């Protein structure tokens, strides 16, 4: 059966992507439980538009959880993408411009105007006449006002965001904002298939792969032990997840605290180190 709300998996093989995918995988039972593909239009109509005659509370809760899980998945995808983009921009800055913020902005301005043009006539200068007529070139400028839109901080705003912009950016959502889903991951066995069917009286068989790759039927006690072990693993998963988000919040705090006209690139090196630590999960070593 193809669920309307399939498991969303981040693309990429970075340790951060694997961490986020492990987090999402533990929410699959929740995704199945709120799958709107299993809801009929009659149930929707009675639940949302006939509140006096239908289970409006249950339908509203289903809609809220579906929306919440959808936003969660999109946020993790955006955060991972922003981390990779910011790391790439910062690494290119240090490798090509050796940490010189002015040289970066000057070169960025020249390239941007040559590519996209400008409505400011002062951005161009006429060269000596040639047989082909007047030739115009981008005027060189290195004053802070002219370079501000082309600074490294301006380029990094696409990853960190700024006041008034909507969407998920680095540091915009901290670890606490992922509650209650993180709590659900930590206690995944409480929402296990066994517990879902417990109230129905249906006996659900459980199995796991043995060392030879064969399915081995589990006794209930063995399955419960597996669930306990899973909770221990998920507790560690949650710790890593929260720590990664806390580091991103710190990187964002440092970014927004920097002055627009900063000339020292040392803070950017610190931000790069934090982002790479999150991308590679270096804090696990």
Automatic annotation (TrEMBL):
This is Uncharacterized protein. It comes from Hymenobacter negativus. The lineage of its organism: Bacteria, Pseudomonadati, Bacteroidota, Cytophagia, Cytophagales.
């Amino acid at each position: 059966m193809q669920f309307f709300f399939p498991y969303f998996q981040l693309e990429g093989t970075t340790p951060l992507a694997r961490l986020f995918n492990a987090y999402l995988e533990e929410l699959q039972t929740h995704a199945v439980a709120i799958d709107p593909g299993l809801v009929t239009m009659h149930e929707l109509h009675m639940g949302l538009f006939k509140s006096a005659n239908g289970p409006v509370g249950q339908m509203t809760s289903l809609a809220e959880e579906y929306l919440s899980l959808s936003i969660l998945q999109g946020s993790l995808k955006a955060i991972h993408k922003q981390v990779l983009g910011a790391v790439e921009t910062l690494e290119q800055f240090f490798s090509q411009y050796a940490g010189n913020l002015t040289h970066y902005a000057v070169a960025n301005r020249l390239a941007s105007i040559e590519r996209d043009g400008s409505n400011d006539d002062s951005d161009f200068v006429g060269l000596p006449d040639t047989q082909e007529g007047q030739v115009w070139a981008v005027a060189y400028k290195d004053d802070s006002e002219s370079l501000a839109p082309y600074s490294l901080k301006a380029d990094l705003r696409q990853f960190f965001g700024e006041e008034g912009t909507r969407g998920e950016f680095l540091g915009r959502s901290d670890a606490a904002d992922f509650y209650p889903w993180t709590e659900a991951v930590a206690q995944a066995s409480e929402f296990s298939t066994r517990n879902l069917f417990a109230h129905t009286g249906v006996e659900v068989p459980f199995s796991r792969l043995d060392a030879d790759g064969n399915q081995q039927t589990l006794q209930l006690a063995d399955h419960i032990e597996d669930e306990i072990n899973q909770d221990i693993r998920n507790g560690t998963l949650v710790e890593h997840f929260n720590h990664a988000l806390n580091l991103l919040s710190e990187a964002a705090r440092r970014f927004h605290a920097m002055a627009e006209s900063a000339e020292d690139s040392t803070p950017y090196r610190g931000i790069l180190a934090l982002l790479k630590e999150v991308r590679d999960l270096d804090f696990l070593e």
